[in-house]
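User: Fold both of these, please.

Assistant: Here is the first one.
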Amino acid sequence: MVAVKAADAERVLSNPDPKAVVFLVYGPDAGLVAERAKRLANGAVEDPADPFQMVRIEGDDVASDPLRLLDEANTIGLFGGRRAIRVSATGRNLASALTPLLATPPQDAIVVVEAGDLQRSSPLRTLCERSPVALAIPCYTDGAREIGGLVDSMLREHNLAIERDARAVLISLLGGDRAASRSEVEKLMLYARGSKEISLADVHAVVGDVSALAVDAAVDAAYGGDLPALDIAFTRLMHEGFDAGVLLGFVLRHGLMLARARNGIEANGGSPASAVEGMRSLHFKRKAAVERHLRLWTGTDLTRVVREVGTATGNTRRNAALAPELAQKTLWSIALAARRAAARG
């Protein structure tokens, strides 16, 4: 059959070709692979909880005994009916096990094979894409659109609404793995039980922890002049699909907090340590870093940085394609200024 495009995967899953008896579900998002494999297998049988209808086989076992899959697919269930055989992912090649199965397709069974990120030249992927009775379904990391759809559908099932800003932040915090995203939304719904609408405070209280450490690390590294730590934190956030504009929002809020505190110190006296103690919302683990920021920066320099970050944040909204590059440039500019301040003593 024709290779399924990632954009068409949901449509194909909703109405699989009846001629297909083998489904290869592959890609870098292991959570999405497992979710789609389960959906295909469950949809093919009357009772997914019946072990005679739903059979699980380890991929390594199939690789060691290629004919086992053919035998299992042609076995008649104890009480008859259609069967589904789900093969777990393995690093070994399963093409030799699927070849005889595709040559003589089973009449009353489907086989769902899970796999990792297969190259276009992979023997297993090539075999399934060329077979008239197989479908190869890719599972790539969710983007903002897919995450938004997941959030909306899960909340709709539980008759929950969500504030617009809360939804935007939630989407920016999720991604990378479908199972992890689903788990975080489930925790959020449990936290908001009894409410009709999920608020931004709810999202920060529950899901913010997913990327909060990396966000804090990026912010603290930038204002502290730690370029290696900044690079690690920024790369991780972008890899997880974190919105660059949202990240700059955190950087801006931190800069405003520092500017207020630093201007207060310069106007009224006091020390960075005492200013930090007065920041009630600041997590205790960040107090040392923030105190260092206040020692490095002057009120004038922080005012300039806040203005620059505000401009950069607006630019990311106007040009989403360049948002990561703009955010990285802004963060590095802050970090380099902090390093110069540290060098001056």
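And the second sequence with its predicted structure:
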Amino acid sequence: DGKGLYRPPMIAPTSMDEGHSSKHKRTELRKEKEAVRQASHSSFLKEMMNELEGKPEE
């Protein structure tokens, strides 16, 4: 009846493409956040934002 016979566990097939795309998305989001962070430290962009918002110069 098959006693003592090794039967490996059944493993459901999965697709690996999803993991790659989510990693790519995370990398893109990280790059965007870094660009925003760098832009927030730029004096030129700060001046431009102040002009667009109508803030007076300090």
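The chain has a mean pLDDT of 81.
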